[in-house]
Every structure is written in C-alpha cells, then in structure tokens.
Design goal:
5-stranded parallel beta sheet; alpha/beta; 2 domains; Rossmann fold; 57% helix
Amino acid sequence: MAKQFSEHRKYCRIAIGEPEVVDLMKEVPCSFSAASLELLNKYGSRMKRLNGIEQHYSNVTSDPELSTVEVMKLATARYTSFLTQSSGDRFMLTHPFNGNHTALCREVTDDLELALFLLASAEKVANEQFDRAWELLRMCNHLASPTGDPVQRVVYYFAEALQERIKRKTGIVSSDGWECNKRWQSRLVEEIMCLLPSSFAHRQELPFYSATQFSGIQAILESMASAKRIHLVDLGIRSRSHWMILMQALAVRHECPLESLNVTAIGTASRQLVEETGRRLSSFADTLSIPFSFKVVMVSDMQDLSDHLFEVEADEVVGVYCSLSLMNFIARPSHLEALMGVIKTICPILMVVTEVEANTNSPAFVDRFV
C-alpha cells in the first residue's frame, strides 16, 4: 500500500495545487474559502487539544495500534493544522508527517494519509471545487476498500457518498438515479423499523434515548394537563414506546379524564410497518381502556405535507413530536421552512424535538462532515 500512496500522491497535488507552483506565489496574500474559514472557526479552539493528541502519538517509542476513532482524530488535527499554514506550506498535505512518524507503523501511517485525503476531498466539495474533489475521491476509492481495515472501509463509503453529492450538485444523477436513491432510503427506514427488539435491548444498556423520551412525554403531560381531547402528530415515527409511556400516564390521570387520544403518524416510507405500529398501539390502548385512534399519513416528501391531511378537530389540543428527524433537513432549508409552515397552521401548543447535539446539525457541510 505504501507504493500505492507514492504513486497516487500526484493526484493529491493536482487537487490541492502543485507545491512548486504555490512556492512562486508566496508573496501573494493567502485567502481561505468560506468553507475553510468555517472549519477553522469550528475547530480553532480545539487546536491545542488536538495538537496534544498529535504530539502524544509522535512521541510514542513503540508501534502504537491506533483505533479508527484515534486515526480520524489525528488526521483532523493534522488537516486543521494544514489549513492554518500559509499557502507555501501546502506540500504538508502530501507529506503530512514530515519525518515525525517513525513511531507509527506503516499501516497506521497509510491510514492517516488516507483519512487526510478524504478530509481534503470533503473541503473541496464544500468549496464546490468538484474537479479537484473528484481526483482526490478517485484516489480514495483506489486505495480504500469495502473489505479492508476499518479506516479503509470508512473512507471507501464516505468517498462514495461524496461522489454521489458531486453528481447531485452537478446534475449528473438521472431521474432513474434519484428513484433508485429514494428506494434505497425507503429500504433503510424499513430496516431500522424492523429492529425494534434490538432497539429495546440497546436502550436498556444505554438509556440515553429513554431519558429523552421521558423528558418529552413529561413536557406533553404538563402542557396538556387539562386537555380532554388530545391530538398528537408524530413526524417520522420509528417506534411506539414513547406513546405507550404516554398512555400509561394518561390512564392514571383521574383529575381530568381523557375523552380521546388521536395520533397522526407522518411517514415517507414503509406504510405497512407504520400501520403495524398503529395496530399494536391500539391493542395496548384497549388494555388500558383509553379511547384511541391512529391515522397514517404517507407523503413522498415532507415538502408535500399539507395541513388538511391532519384532520384536526376544533376542540382538540394539538402537540407535535419529532424525534431524530429534523437533522435530515439541515442541507435542505427550504424543505424545513415548508414543514414548519405547515406545523404552524395546526396551532400546536408545544412541539417536542429530540436531536443529537453534534456537528451533524451544522448548516455548513464541512462541519457536518468532520
């Protein structure tokens, strides 16, 4: 693999600029793209810690076995450092360790370089320098493998995703390609919904999700303490456990007896699985003697959602529950705006939103990627 890296470094030079050419431009003031500045702004405060990580690994006297996470962290530290250098130091990316990698085994060094190439390609995609990004991604695909070590597998699949993003941005993807992608996403949702037993077991071991569920349901109970007719909209329903928790709480609410509980589940795929969820919830509601109804609203895209699909009655108190769904709209602000506009028309008294507080929520692509 070392020979492959040597042979393919020329593609990296093509993608980021030949060192010899850059040297001639040392006197030209260095300017960074908006995406690069976003990356530096996001990670600049972490440079001291990341540099400590890099220094730690460069001082190791034996061949360390780095985990995939450690490899990616070290690559991020090195690439962020690369972005802070002047344009005359761009040769750093094609020789990223400058002789300070003697403590790292050859395999780890190759993995680090491969991760650096992936980060560089992501920045080029963010800057819409698609030709340069494509050259880097071609190299990533050549050096990585879906059956290689963990870092190679990560790079392989992320490189594929970046190539798909370039095709979409440049209009290369045909209508057939879009339909194929939608079918793939639909199957992915189905697989996730079919993992309910595994999900329950996972939550028992790592109850972070359950904690957010209880917090959300408690907010609904407090906001609707005096409501007798409740209508809840579930955006992108994936499980039924949160509604079962709510039903159990409502069943023992004697100070304000419940007259009706309606749940409208919004889905974009797997109608059969959503309907099965509704049947199970109805059965559970019967055991608690709760007047319950479940309606499924299927749309091809959330942008197609309309207020008349909810069938909200005048005397119903409305709430919206959205768990781990809005992150899909980060890269599509117009879709998010359309969705929020529809939600406003049904006048909910609250909207429960559960999302992971991570870089995946950043509107800047390069931040989400890193």
